[in-house]
Design brief:
504 residues; disordered N terminus; 66% helix; alpha+beta; five-stranded antiparallel β-sheet; three-stranded mixed β-sheet
């Protein structure tokens, strides 16, 4: 298990650290450019290995010729040894930093070995062939830039010049070989320049990509909610944000492990639902789940996730939001609501009890007023008694309003359907406000237009409450003039209008 985790974790962690450090030649080179160096070393190794069969065949052919000097064998053997050592060095760490020097040394050794063969055989063509092969081969296989290629060109020109001194060709042939060598050098230099320009362009794209990756990684880590990238195939974590570490787990524990191995889910049913919805729809939004931190603490969260394609295949990007504060606020709100409901219920119970208790003596007072009205009273006394009875009834209606309020809060209010006389009802309302209107010097008038029915069926108490509120408000804001209450029939509806000369 540890080996698998390391295999998954190592490249991701190296890239992450290299990008965060902003290093473009250190760790990044160890991850990104090492791959390019490995490819370069592979090309160099292929070029060196291809020269070995040529040298071996050359040595074997020389063996068939009995007149071949012993020095020729020594030079070819030296070439084979140098090339073999160079091939072996391409597998070393040293060669990753000094591969240009190694290639240059091998090329110089080859061309001057050819010069030695020209000296031994007396033929300049050997140094010419070696110079052309080195120039074109290095330009095609070695991405070392135009400066190193120019240095090799100078070396090849010098070596061919030395070789031609020991085995010169006649006139035109010598000039022709120099022209051929010059053409090969020009072609090799052009290839080196073109390849270097191409590599610079590719490196620019790579630098842009690294900068983009660094920005994305900073955004990834700057998110206030924990984010994790999980491989869909095996449910293993391949990357986590810095905020995820607040759960108590470290990166080494999380990367390469599955969500089941970490034990972050408090409910296995919720985990199964999460993965099932991902497989069905490709995304999950605001799934309510409880997660377990490393210390065992349970954290209420909402989980959103989406399936996307990354370099490691189909992956799931998790975004986990801690809603612990929201849950606490909800619990406090529920407790406050329950407290308010209890207080409202207690208030309704108090109002109901108080109204019943007040209504009992009020009924007794009104009963005594009715008995008093049956006695011998003067006109003024009877008028005053009538007003007292009307206001007592108004107070009783107010008590009934309190009872209605209690019924409304408990949801048990109902409208009555009883027979009543409209004229009697509105006259009692007018009598209730007549003294106040007289005290303010206002004229209070009541108009019931012809054709208005007065024998009605309904809820007289509710109608009286509405009229009392309308007339009371009009009287309150009127200081001079008149106040008129008008009732008329409009089709099948009764219209009640209260008009005044006040500010309203």
């Amino acid at each position: 298990m540890a080996t698998k985790k390391d295999a998954i974790r190592a490249p991701t962690e190296q890239i992450r650290r290299a990008i965060l450090s902003g290093n473009s030649h250190g760790d990044v080179q160890g991850v990104h450019i090492v791959a390019a160096d490995a490819r370069t070393l592979r090309q160099i190794r292929i070029g060196l290995v291809l020269t070995l069969p040529y040298q071996i065949v050359h040595l074997f052919a020389a063996h068939l010729v009995s007149s071949t000097p012993v020095a020729f064998y020594a030079v070819i053997s030296f070439d084979i040894a140098i090339t073999s050592v160079a091939v072996a060095l391409t597998y070393t760490v040293w060669c990753r930093r000094r591969w240009r020097e190694l290639v240059m040394f091998d090329c110089v050794a080859m061309v001057y070995s050819a010069v030695a063969i020209s000296v031994v055989t007396g033929l300049a063509v050997q140094s010419f062939v070696a110079a052309v092969l080195m120039l074109l081969g290095a330009a095609a296989l070695v991405p070392w830039g135009w400066r190193w290629q120019a240095a090799l060109i100078i070396t090849c020109f010098v070596s061919f010049g030395v070789g031609s001194l020991f085995g010169p060709l006649a006139g035109a042939s010598t000039l022709y070989l120099w022209l051929e060598l010059l053409s090969a050098a020009g072609l090799a230099q052009f290839v080196a320049i073109a390849m270097e320009a191409y590599r610079c362009e590719i490196e620019g794209h790579i630098q842009d990509l690294r900068a983009s990756e660094a920005k994305l990684l900073k955004i990834f880590d700057a998110n206030p909610d924990p984010i994790a990238v999980v491989r869909l195939a095996d449910h293993r974590f391949i990357e986590i944000s810095r905020e995820f570490l607040k759960s108590g787990f470290n990166r080494e524990e999380v990367l390469g492990a599955t969500d089941r191995e970490l034990g972050v889910w408090c409910s296995d049913a919720t985990r199964c639902e999460f993965w099932q919805r991902l497989e069905t729809h490709g995304y999950v939004r605001n799934l309510r789940a409880d997660f377990r931190a490393k210390d065992g603490r349970v954290v209420p969260c909402t989980l959103s996730a989406v399936v996307t394609e990354l370099s490691q295949g189909s992956c799931v990007i998790w975004e986990i939001r801690n809603i612990e504060a929201i849950v606490c606020a909800e619990q406090a709100l529920v407790a406050a609501r329950e407290t308010a409901e209890a207080a409202s219920e207690a208030k309704s119970s108090f109002l109901s009890t108080m109204a019943h208790e007040i209504r009992t003596p009020m009924n007794a007072i009104l009963g005594m007023a009715e008995l008093l009205a049956d006695g011998h009273l003067s006109v003024d006394q009877r008028k005053y008694l009538s007003i007292m009875a009307n206001n007592g009834n108004a107070l009783l209606d107010l008590i009934n309003d309190i009872l209605d309020l209690a019924r409304i809060e408990t949801g048990s209010v109902t409208l009555e359907r009883t027979s009543f006389d409209l004229r009697d009802l509105v006259e009692r309302v007018a009598e209730t406000f007549s003294i106040r209107a007289h005290q303010k010097g206002l004229e209070l008038a009541l108009r019931i237009l012809p054709g208005t029915p007065t024998a009605l069926v309904g809820d007289p108490l509710r109608l009286r409450q509405i009229l009392v509120n309308l007339v009371g408000n009009a009287l309150k804001f009127t200081h001079h003039g008149e106040l008129v209450m008008t009732i008329c029939l409009d089709d099948t509806r009764l219209h009640f209008t209260v008009s005044d000369t006040g500010i309203g």
